[in-house]
Amino acid sequence: MKNLTFKSTATIVAKEGISMGAGAGAQKLTTDVTGNDTAGMSVDEHSNTLKTLDEVFEGNRLDYDNTAFKIRSGVDGVSKSVGNADIVYGKITYILDDVDGDILGIYDAKTGVLTQQFVYDSDLGWLLK
pTM for this one? Predict the structure, then answer.
């Protein structure tokens, strides 16, 4: 996951920590008892076992049923509180669904040099830039 870069703001959420992007409820889940942010480390360790872009996306999702991150269905907010559902999360989901123009960079793990770059075209798919 460290070697992927995207034009969308979803990457900012992943790199800056889930607690900043998903609201106060997520901060409780991603911060240990000493107040240290642990989200980036746990996501990175989990992502290392995932091989494809789809696996990484599915493996790092938070919007499963009965979680505070499923703001459109799942937790209804009446029988079980969603806490402070963050409306920004809905905007991030929209950006993820609209992948046209997204850029994928492949970097050399040792040197950090960009080796290949792809751009997504909604009609043609991933194209070498």
Answer: 0.29
